[in-house]
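Colleagues,

For the teaching module next term, I've prepared a clean inverse folding example: a structure given as tokens, and then the sequence designed for it. I'd like students to try predicting residues themselves before seeing the answer, so please don't circulate the second half yet.
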């Protein structure tokens, strides 16, 4: 089931991806995790769009740095209520099971603590889209700054259970580095080898390697594939020290 939402990638800072979601029916535009305002405002301006909402996955400045300037143009900010104190621009606090909408399209909130204590992701069930912030990356997961491996293992289990065709929009271009570690973590996984050929080709052309899909992550992501919290903890520690 294809979505009629238009998704635009806005590269920001050194390796962030800011995502625009545009609904041609309501003419609404949402921006997910604006690291900085200028490239986002330029991208919507080129298209004649107006941003009505900001959706934040977590408080880190490379996800919220553009909030104030975009909010000043009239957008409302939704994000994790658990991080309200760290997101001073927040208008609407969100918890597990809450929803936000763009036009007639609904995004359900899933709490995914680990990278930060209040991290959330946005799952647009009917559109088969997931905005995963710094929880799920292509062949990777977020570093555990404010949470632990059992929490991240729980997140991975929940996200792995989403439908195969779910398109995953993460917030960083980390795929090549993640994939080099993935090939070490699972040396016999031919899917990783094949995917890395494609990733290297895309990067050589300067192209994004995201979005990805839940099916592809289930086949090639050593964190989503971890069989236990213990294995996830080991892999996370190895990746943190990995220089490949
Ligand atoms: Zn972060
Ligand atoms: Fe980040």
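(Answer key — instructors only)
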């Amino acid at each position: 089931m294809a979505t009629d939402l238009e998704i635009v990638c806005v590269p920001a800072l050194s390796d962030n991806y800011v995502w625009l979601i545009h609904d041609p029916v309501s003419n609404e535009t949402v921006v997910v995790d604006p690291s900085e305002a200028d490239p986002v405002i330029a991208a919507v301006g080129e298209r004649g769009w107006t941003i009505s909402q900001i959706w934040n996955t977590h408080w880190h400045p490379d996800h919220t740095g553009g909030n104030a300037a975009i909010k000043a143009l009239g957008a409302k900010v939704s994000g994790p209520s658990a991080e309200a104190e760290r997101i001073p621009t927040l208008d609407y606090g969100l918890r597990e099971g809450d929803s936000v909408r763009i036009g007639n399209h609904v995004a359900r909130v899933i709490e995914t603590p680990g990278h930060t204590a209040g991290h959330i992701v946005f799952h647009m069930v009917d559109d088969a889209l997931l905005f995963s912030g710094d929880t799920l990356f292509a062949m990777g997961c977020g570093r555990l700054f404010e949470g632990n491996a059992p929490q991240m293992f729980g997140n991975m289990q929940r996200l792995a259970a989403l439908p195969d065709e779910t398109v995953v929009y993460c917030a960083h271009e980390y795929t090549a580095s993640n994939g080099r570690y993935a090939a070490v973590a699972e040396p016999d996984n031919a899917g990783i080898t094949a995917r890395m050929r494609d990733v290297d080709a895309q990067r050589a052309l300067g192209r994004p390697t995201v979005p990805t899909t839940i099916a592809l992550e289930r086949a090639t992501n050593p964190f989503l594939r971890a069989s236990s919290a213990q294995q996830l903890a080991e892999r996370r520690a190895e990746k943190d020290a990995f220089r490949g």
